[in-house]
Amino acid sequence: MEKSEQTFSRRLTEEIEYNGMKKSEFARKVGLSLGTLNMYLYRDTIPASDVAVRMASALNTTVEYLVNGTGPVTVQPLE
């Protein structure tokens, strides 16, 4: 499946796993309850922009990638 054809919830799940985090650890890191995170993971709900920014930051990826499946997957450090 093309990355851009995947859903937000699928990309989020893959990035959490790729970063070696448990769902509870990720939820705590971004300031969400586990129930709220599960809503994003299993109901394919898109979060508010501030939450999406915190998620992307915690996963070292971009909001654009998580939400749309486009753009860079990882954030390059500033030199």
Question: What is the count of β-strands?
Answer: 0
Strand content: under 5%
H/E order of the elements? HHHHH
Structural class by sheet pairing and helices: mainly alpha
Gyration radius, in Å: 12 Å
| Mean pLDDT over all positions | 88
> What's the helical proportion of residues?
55-70%
Quickly count the helices.
Answer: 5
Task: Extract low-pLDDT stretches.
Answer: none
Sheet having the most strands: none
Report the span from N to C terminus. 34 Å
User: What global shape is seen?
Assistant: globular
Name a few traits of the molecule.
globular; mainly alpha; 79 residues
Layout of strands and helices, then pairs:
Blueprint: H1 8-18, H2 23-30, H3 34-42, H4 49-58, H5 63-68
Helix pairs in contact: 2-3
Give a description of the structure.
With 79 residues, the protein is mainly alpha-helical. It is 56% helix and 0% strand. The protein is built from five helices and no strands. Helix 2 packs across helix 3. The mean pLDDT is 88.
